[in-house]
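Following the same procedure, backbone shapes were mapped to integers, yielding the entry below.
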Amino acid sequence: MNAGHPIRRATTHRRGGREVGGGVTLRVLHVSQPVEAGVPAVVAALVADQRARGYEVSVACPAGTGLADRATALGATHLSWSATRTPGRSVTDETRRLRGLIDRIDPDIVVLHSAKAGLAGRLALRGSRPTVYVPHAWSFEAVSGPVAAAATAWEIAASRWTDVIVCVSDDERDRGTAAGITAPVVVVPNGVDLHALRPAEPGPARARLGLAQAPTVVCVGRLSEQKGQDQLLAAWPAVRYAVPDAQLVLVGDGPARAALEASAPAGVLFTGARSEIADVLAAADVVALPSRWEAAPLVPLEAMAAGRPVVAFGVDGVRAALGDTGVVLTPGDVPGLATALTGLLRDPARAAAAGRAARAHVERTADVQATTAAWNDVLTAVALGATGAAPLRVAQVRSLARTLLGGTAAVDVTTVAGSAPGDRLRAAGLSALGLPVWWRGTGSAPPALGGPVLTGDQDGSALSAAARRPGAGTHDGPPVTVVVTVLNEGDALRRLVDEVLPQLHGDDELVLVDGGSTDGSVEALPSASALRIEIVPGAGISAGRNHGIRLAANEVIVCTDAGCTVEPGFVDAFRRAFAVADPPALVSGVYRVLARDAMEEAQALACYPQPTEIRRPDLLVRTYTRLFGTGFDPRFAVGRCLAFTREAWKAADGFPEHLATGEDVSFGLAIARSGAVRATTDAVVGWTQRDGLAATWRMYRGYGRASTDGGDTALLVRDAARGLAYLAAPVLAATPTGRRLLGLGSAAYLSLPVVRALRAGAGPRTIALLPVALATKDVGKLAGAVQGLLIRRAR
């Protein structure tokens, strides 16, 4: 077999047993406490679109008419979830019931709409599943004083359990950012169904609703303090004075209804909640929106789609929705509200022209089809975990406590102004947590206790490299060739090909070099235009890689191994790393060590750097690394997750073919002597360890032998120093002072593995096996190094 092994397949990834990608089958759960008005309308539009895409959609909300019936009619599964609007003692039961619903339907992604679902849902999930939160107006804007402070603190803390927050306006996003919320935010404006809502004459609609044929103002919304109907009632007498037969129709229900009815002047009608929104808006000459706060209200968009002018207070999201149509007033300007309504009612031609302009504007900016398409992009990206393409997230830190409360997962680089008291301490604290710090102050920089500290002017490339996300946010990059060497890989080869091919595009290619498999795994591969297979009998790993690289059509080479699980975004992460102005020679990715039992879990925790600490090298990690010479170093390349240029490969004379193991480390060190080396934590593979301690011992013995054969003194000294410590242990144990030193040294050496185990929630058996895992690694490498030295001396 050779080049031209064609195959075409849909872009798919496997997650939870369901296909995700092109030909997607996502299982989506929407959770909402509101069942009437704006939020349910948004949920219903999303349900309709997602059902049309073939998704399995469920909606958890209170039973009864409203959202439950709409969701069922659209083909979704309704899950009865009783919940009150306000927080209180009911939250515990609401969270427990929601957790049970989530466990029962096993969704790929959970979308939490509005404050109560955001509270109960994130308490129930706590980051265990892909989670999207849609505030529909921040909870802290509905309250004041200590309650507002508590609500803000909750939103900051809960953002660590949120993959993406979807805001419906730039205003809503900016208010969240100003409050200290650091989770990734995407703005997806609300949209309306332009086919269902069209301009129509008011007369027939008024007749169907039983309204008088008179100048009419309509206000649609929950009867509550937020929606501000009391301010509209305060303005209404002045409108009636100027237009005596005018009628005000309040559509909706809510806690303020009794008080509003009691204070309503003449000419005001309360209809309660109505489902025929098209008729309600068609009956209006003008639609009023007197809200005290919003995020991006749906009603004005619906009114504009119906060809009606809107008079509104300029709260968040309103000006963006109306554009240059309608009338936007200073919030709370009751006299201005009366004047604006009167002017439009007394000039029908002007009102009609404003309505036509409103319809034209909403056609350009708020078509629900564009909204639902944007939503689908968000959901598929979150479900696939495709966060690597996210732009570099740089956050200014004014409060260390607030940053800790919100978590740091969504922040790549922190900036500290350096002009306020305590800024130096704050910057040092951020570095100690492992966060890169961009110090903007004058004078000497604070110490880098963990994460790097950058000073002076920095461009995006330098910041993304410091964050170990080179090229973050870039969607372009050079074509790549993925090279994999294989030999009797069985089903693992097919899985790898199925994972890599969907990540290729354009001129990318996958080159498999087979050393002479006899298990039929290569012959069983389906064809693909991007797949090339080369049979090189007897080729080892290095020879196979070198052969594949010589054949590669592209200048950027990516390597991985069969048996690895290539995570979504793996290839693009390397592509982005070479898309910067000054590309590196080599880029090292990261790998998650998979475990099947307690011993393997102990090995994973004791012997390998964790992806989280590679991205966030905190004070403990840095200190441990300096003391014991372990930790992540991108120069020590790992063949299962690295990329490099063809030029760098040539300069290093290729992978060393005389080494049976450790060839990738020697290759990386050779490139590092003359070229720039970077790390990217966006390129991730999962890797399953060798079966059993004996196989693991042999693997580490091979690594020790490679330290000798590769001729790198630093590797040999590092392995020898750790090995000698084991040889010195019996001597130290012979005296009280020696035993104390031995105990302190052992505790220090076990400190980071134990911390890793505690963070991972490992059990007592795993923790007890950590010393065994460390000893297997260290003594195995020492044995290999000694073996290599003896062989070299015998030559």
